[in-house]
Batch of 4 targets.
Target 1
Amino acid sequence: MKRGMLLCVVVGAAMVVLGVPGAALAGGGCHSGVTENDATGEKDATVRMVDACFTATVTTLDPGAPVTFANTDVGVTHNVGGNQWGHFEDMVEGDAFTVTFDEPGVYPFACNYHPGMTGAIVVGDGKSAGGDDIIVEAFEPAPKVVTPVAAEPDGMPGGVVAAVALIGLAIGAGLALGVGRLGRTRPAP
């Protein structure tokens, strides 16, 4: 009986671990390293939120070119925050936030919900008017506008992950209860 219960617990735990990527997987540079997008010379740029990562992690663009942050993560809520700029409200799948940086510099950003989900926008040569690499003074960004966007999700949908985890827990619990009942003896009538 003990081996059967142990097997049920191990199978259930394995299904949960393998089926749920979780917020702990988020990271700056994300799971396979830093990704870069050189959008200089382009009229705009897009940073996608997918698999609890910003893709690209580092985006370079010209001053005045808008950059759109688009949440393409199915079932995962994100936000985008920088030093006195960003969209700190919940962004669900399909939401987007656009901001324009007029001054050259480096503008770091992060998602408050997923530690390590970070990135940076490099505007122009990355040097501010004072020659600094990182902009830390306050500035007035373009007005916040959140609009739904049609985006193709990359990765496994969050609903599928949750379903796999729940099924694994239900199977493990059911097997544990069934094995536990088999081991009991019934009193004689």
Target 2
Amino acid sequence: MTSDDGTAGELSARIGRVVRTYRTQQGFSLGDLGRATGLSKTILAKIERGDGNPSIETLQRVARGLSVPLGALLAEDQAPRSRKIAARSGDALGDPSGMRAWLLHAEGRDHRSELFELDLPAGTDQRTDGHLPGAEEVVVCLAGRLRVGPVGAEVELEPGDAAWFAADGPHHYEGVEDGRALDLVLYAGARA
């Protein structure tokens, strides 16, 4: 996870509080969450203390282990009724693959949705095991060329093109050329 130094600490602390809250609400010990995510108790404890620098994939594993969407770990406590979302003003997340993502919106109703802005430099190949059961994604290419979708069923996008796919199984995002995209993740019946 990367962000400006001033906000990185705040984001890490907020994520830690949220993870700890979800874990304790579900009656999980760190060991229980570790078994559900495949992450060590040490890594999970660092995340909860706000000391960690987890990648997107690590946060997705934690979200899956807690049965919540990724945005639930990142969203502000209370969203205003309306707001302007300036370009790249959301919390910046990074991954060793080279992909960067900015959470633009997270919806906490029964049908939860999240909107991310993605940077996909050429050569990026961000893979994920999938989101919660029933999750879907719509990816809109803003610039460059991208290849996205479930492993083995990817589609190539150019500016203005969009892809829809079932996102509850293995899928990936690849930068064929330096690219930017909007990624809408839809969760059916997911809790906040």
Target 3
Amino acid sequence: MQIYDGLFTPSAKSEGSFNAGEGFGKKWGWYQSIYALAGKDVSRISEVTKISLHQCLIWLEFEKEKNDLEQKMIKNAYNKNR
């Protein structure tokens, strides 16, 4: 199928494929969030899509803020040790 060209023919540019200018997020959109909520486990995708949108978004916002804080702390520790 043409939709999966990028998967089976690395040199093919499938519809919606990305390059440095367009960005990964533009191609994959909401699938990134579902992937994260499923813990990178394809067998859990159906399970995740049954959870309320509100619960999913709260979890994702928490994860984002937690990751941002951790990155800031790592950066500060790195700068102190320079």
Target 4
Amino acid sequence: MIPWLEAYDPFPDVSQALCQDSDAPGLLAASADFCPERILEAYKSGIFPWFSEGQPILWWCTDPRMVLPTDKLVISRSLQKKISQVQKSMATDKRWQIRFDSDFETVIRNCAAPRKDESGTWITEDIIQNYVKLHEMGYAHSSELWFDGELMGGLYGLSIGKMFYGESMFTKISDASKIALVWMAHFLHENGVSLIDCQQQTPHLASLGGIIISREAFSLHLVETISQPPITNWTPAPLTQDPALRNSQA
């Protein structure tokens, strides 16, 4: 059993989330209310929403937790070559562009589109509307790869203090979302953010350098970071001397 939260009820301690050998490891609570203030309260404690259309709002805090160190991305040589091409174009013909926050709603709607071999999405219209509000409030941000004025791929997430919570990615061409991620990770590293929260463990994120830490370690990291001054200037910078690029592999 998990608790049902009425409006304004506080979240239970994350240690009360269902254990790893349960049917829903990490499930903490359910609620009917879903608003930007509730979402921010959740993320500050390492809790995130994840539910499907027609379900109550389900809140999770997984243990262990996958995170992506912003200075230790694993970048293949082929991806590094594409990044160099984008960087060169940004300085010359500008056909390729990396932008932050230029079309947040389109990014999240692309992330919500069903993937190949998937029948649905967890990014419901309720999720979209609330995260667009969080974007307008200055908490939600997107990293976008554009070519000739067309959005090719990107990602979005939440930023609180010196913590970034990655939410979802999409791509229309090979590696577009990875390129957007590399730029975002570089930007975050340069602005004092050391970890991107990935929430769920996936082989894809592990291949990019994602690591597993305990829920306790993650909670301690949040205590140290969410109260720090937030990033105020969300302008992507060139990847000159980016530490992530030194971790390239064949």
